[in-house]
Description:
Layout: H1 2-11, H2 14-64, E1 79-84, E2 89-93, H3 98-117, E3 129-134, E4 141-150, E5 155-163, H4 169-199, H5 201-212, H6 229-278, H7 283-315, E6 323-326, H8 327-344, E7 348-351, E8 358-361, H9 363-379, E9 387-395, E10 398-405, H10 443-453, E11 456-463, E12 467-474, E13 477-478, H11 481-486
Parallel strand pairs: 7-9
Antiparallel strand pairs: 1-2, 1-5, 3-4, 4-5, 6-8, 8-13, 9-10, 10-12, 11-12
Helix pairs in contact: 2-4, 6-7, 7-10, 8-9, 9-10
Amino acid sequence: MKKFSGLQVFLHSIRFRLVMWFTLILALVLVAFSGFIYYNQARDIRGDALYRVERKLADIEEALNGTDEKRVMLQASDVLVLLDQKGNVLVGQGIPSSEDMLALVKTAQAALASQLAQANPDHASDGLVSWISEWKGVTSHYFFVVKPVATAAQSGYVILGSPFDPYKLNNRLMVTLLLGNLLTILVALSGGLWLADRAMRPVHSITQAARTISETDLNRRLNMNSKDELGELASTFDAMLGRLQTAFERQRQFVADASHELRTPLTIVNLESNRALASKRTAPEYQRALGVIRSENEFMSHLVNDLLTLARMDSGQMAMEMTRLDLSEVALDALERLSPLAERKNIRLEAGEMPEVYILGDRQYLMQMISNLVENGIKYTDGPEKCMRVETGLDETTAWLRVSDDGAGILPEHLPHLFDRFFRVDKARSRGEDDQQGGNGLGLAIVDWIVRAHDGKVFVESKPGQGSSFEVRFNSTVWPISQQAAR
Length: 487
């Protein structure tokens, strides 16, 4: 049963199909080439047979006209019949029986009658008619000609026949071609199987590696140095493993960070509730405990919402409604919504130059992107003298939005990781009761996803002590109608 299963797998393999197609094409080519060779040789043999018969026929005509009969060189296998005008046999040579003689005479007369009936007599020369037929008692085909002849005494017909292929060259060639083709196909089949097995061996290695690699063993690589298509396939497979390893590591890190972020507020809620229930407290103490619990609950709710948003974004479940909208108008709406938060922290929120900048985008997501950038600046801008500025503009065909602040700034080593999930510049800072200082490290990750979804890029410039500037550039710019008319 196992052998049958292995044979069935082999018959359905690409290796077997490649070899079969190669062998089939080779067989077709060999058959066509052999047919061409056989046809050419048969044509040459026919030409030689006609030449021999015509030479012998010329010698017979000379002998009948009184020339020396010794010039007529007839072989024992030749057939010669002389007929008078009435069809009577005058001379017969090489004919096995009278029945064969009668059949030959009828065939010759029919051939002559057919020539006379033709509208175009150019198919024969000097009344010569030829045909090929089997001769009874002889295995070889004969080449016959019949031609009218006239002597001083009388006129009649000469029928002369000679073996078409006396040395059986056609048969020998057919056997040689058949055996040669079969041998060539067998060699090609064996060599093709060996070459296919050798060529498909890297695929087998890739298959075995794919079977053994698991989620916990994604650091393995094929490391094939071949420069052919299979080497390219192996390199692609290694690159895919690298992406999978990165995705799994990112997922594990994401789960670990989310667990870590949730553990702190849950611990605080548990401690505050246990402390409030341990003994009878005053009303202000209960109020303080409930305030802490509410603050931590708001933080966890915000964190869970951001996690859900990122999960939907990664899975492609966030459908965007791309419409033509003014980026400056969306920015002004975001500033108006976040003004109370800035006032509570004594931060001046300013709107810079905001000309009409039309892009193709989703208003809701763009509002969330701008809000996250502004909230991030508010969280890390301290002091009543501080200011934040939001402005938009258009450079040739690229729309941009810039959110800048004069806060503490960001260290250069932190800039490459700003848009990583759960990354916070100052991890030692604790959240306040009202503003949740420090955030959950997901706001800028959401900003980066929204910007990329709108075919844009986000850039950051910051120096410690001099503030930060986040600039978003969009490629999906739509010119206003008035500017279109001017252009």
